[in-house]
Amino acid sequence: MILSRKEKNSLSEIDIDRIIEMAWEDRTPFDAIQFQFNLSEAEVKALMKKELKFSSYKLWRERVESCKTKHAAKRVEGIDRFKCNLQRAISNNKISKRR
Length: 99
Description:
Elements (H helix, E strand, L loop, with lengths): L4 H6 L2 H12 L5 H8 L3 H11 L2 H13 L33
C-alpha cells in the first residue's frame, strides 16, 4: 500500500526527517517505523525514493537488503527492542537524554 496524497501531506517535515533518520539507521527495523508512523516497509521505501537523491537511495537500498537488523524476522533471537540501549541523542525526546 502506497501513501495517498492526503496521508503524505499529513506528515510534517519533522516526521519525514525522523523517518529518514530511522530508515538510515541499521539497527532500527521497519517494524519500529510502522509502530511509530504507521508506514509499511513499501511506504518507507517510496518515501526514501522521493526524498533522497537517486544515488543515495540506491546505496541505501543495497545496504538495507543485506542488513539483517532492518527486518525483524531476520534479527538474532533475543533482540526485542527498537533502539540500541546506548542510543541517547534522539531529537525532540527529553527522556532519552537523561541518564
